[in-house]
Design goal:
The protein is an alpha/beta fold and 499 residues long. It folds into 2 domains: 50-136 and 186-243 and 422-497, Alpha/Beta hydrolase fold, catalytic domain (Rossmann fold, 3-Layer(aba) Sandwich); 139-182 and 245-420, no CATH class. The chain contains 17 helices and 10 strands. Strand 6, helix 7 (215-226) and strand 7 (231-237) form a beta-alpha-beta unit.
Length: 499
């Protein structure tokens, strides 16, 4: 799941909601851095940078489709950079997560959110990984077919509903094979990490400086595993645990969203505009009752002809948990939904899956599935059914949704490329892992696990809410991360920052 695209969309939605509310209120809504040596710019011949608007420059890079045949067919990666605004010391490569998040859009929307010292001393570089966005994007379904897939009932109550979900998941996999068969076996994270080293060389950097958020931490960990001697400084913010199986990831992530939802509810019940009452457990039950009700009868939207099914309601519920600043919007959305209006929840859902108001989608949903399905070994329908039952008890509002959502991997035409294992990056420079204690999408324990697996992992903790920490506004986190990226010297392991 992505991070910054959601955050930017939530900000836009907050502004739109505020403007709408003035016209027609919704129903029921009452440190210092050390000296830095200047480095020369990379050789111009490596990448042909061209102006692409907004103060950014763009370039293309050819990489092998199959690294076992480096001289064979090539893919074209798209890159973007914001040049350093002062004394340049090198390039800071970034990835916003996903898998499937566009690094190009990330830099366009979020470069200005990086610390001033980083913007001064580094070219901020983004790229669309293979199979994503402008880099040979995976294509599986039409926009209308994606609407249908995302609305499927992923809490099946009987054999008929299981069969319908299985057919929809199989159609997704078959669509990917039909439209993207050539690239599907090669979109895994190991290959994307190899691409990152090609990017490093093309940028003219002896060693890599990198910031990765969410899934971008898994990509960064794989880079360090493959190229430990090429690591200068890596920040892995909101970590994924490489050692966890797909079943473990699904269950733990579902619990993470439950933890975040409880934190939201605990805050909500203290407020006058909360539709959940005054008790946390009773409030959580009201949310579960809402989801069960949408399973029987979808909500309607005042601005869209789509029915707001249980799946879309769950997506809409998850989105504002990524960013604490969006909690007021979630209170409004729940107030509306409990009166039968799912409009705001639907808009939240669209933000998470990158659906535009005109009904078009980015490549994120298809790329996300394609990378996940070749990164982690999966299992059959019967086993997923058992996993979903366990998850439903452990995480009543999100468990089934997350477990059943991986069902297309059961029918995936490309076999998983890797065995699940720890990544140690033995011999690398110190790597900074940043974990948020109530992170919904990448539970805090994953950051602890990754930091302990890495040969020189250093854990920096943010005791707070939301998905990832660096761009969330904490001065303490900002100072520690910026100092590390500038000096390649991490903070003391175990350092904790608070809001």
């Amino acid at each position: 799941m992505r991070v910054r695209g959601v955050a930017a969309g939530l900000t836009a939605l907050a502004l739109a909601t505020a403007c709408t509310a003035t016209k027609e209120p919704a129903p029921g809504t009452a440190p210092q851095s050390g000296s830095v040596a200047q480095a020369p710019a990379p050789a111009a011949a490596a990448l042909a940078w061209k102006d692409c608007g907004g103060g950014f420059q763009c370039a293309k890079l050819r990489v092998p489709l199959d690294y076992a045949r480096p001289g064979g067919e090539q893919l074209t990666l798209s890159l973007i950079r914001q040049p350093a605004k002062g004394k340049r010391i090198g390039s800071l490569l970034t990835n916003p997560g996903g898998p499937g998040g566009s690094g190009i859009q990330f830099i366009r929307t979020s470069a200005s959110s990086f610390g001033d010292r980083l913007q001064k001393n580094f070219d901020l570089v983004g790229f669309d990984p293979r199979g994503v966005g402008e880099s040979n994007a995976v294509d599986c379904l039409s926009d209308r077919e994606l609407d249908g897939f995302l609305a499927l009932d992923v809490s099946p109550d009987d054999a008929g509903e299981v069969d319908k979900l299985a057919k929809g998941s199989r159609r997704f996999a078959e669509g990917c094979q039909s439209k993207s068969a050539k690239i599907l076996p090669y979109v895994g994270t190991r290959n994307a990490a190899r691409d990152m080293d090609r990017i490093r060389v093309a940028l003219g950097e002896k060693k890599l400086t990198y910031y990765g958020a969410s899934y971008g931490t898994y990509l960064g960990a794989w880079y360090a595993e493959l190229f430990p001697r090429n690591v200068r400084a890596l920040v892995l913010d909101g970590a994924v645990d490489p050692k966890a199986s797909l079943a473990e990831i699904n269950l733990q992530q579902a619990k993470g969203f439950e933890t975040a939802l409880r934190a939201f509810t605990a805050d909500c019940v203290k407020r006058n505009d909360c539709p959940l009452g005054t008790d946390v457990d009773a409030g959580l039950k009201k949310i579960k009752d809402l989801l069960d009700a949408t399973d029987r009868k979808p909500l309607k939207s005042t601005s869209d002809t789509r029915q707001v099914t249980e799946s879309l309601t769950t997506l809409g519920l998850a989105t504002p948990l990524y960013q604490k600043d969006a909690w007021p919007l979630l209170r409004t959305a729940l107030t509306q939904a409990m009166k039968g209006d799912g409009s705001t929840l639907l808009r939240f859902a669209d933000l998470l899956v990158e659906r535009e108001e005109n009904g078009t989608y980015s490549s994120q949903t298809e790329s996300n599935m394609a990378v996940n399905c070749v990164d982690k070994p999966t299992t059959g329908l019967a086993e997923i059914k058992k996993q979903a039952a366990v998850a439903a008890k452990a995480a009543p509002r999100f468990g089934e949704f997350i477990v059943w959502g991986a069902l297309p991997c059961t029918y995936w035409p490309a076999k998983p490329a890797e065995a699940t294992r720890a990544l140690n990056a033995k011999g690398s420079a110190p790597i900074l892992v940043v974990g948020t204690t109530r992170d919904p999408a990448t539970p805090y324990q994953w950051s602890r696990n990754l930091a302990s697996q890495l040969d020189k992992g250093v854990l920096l903790t943010y005791d707070g809410d939301g998905h990832t920490a660096y761009l969330a506004g904490s001065r303490c986190i900002r100072s520690a991360v910026d100092d590390y990226l500038l000096k390649a010297t991490p903070p003391a392991s175990g350092t904790t920052c608070r809001p």
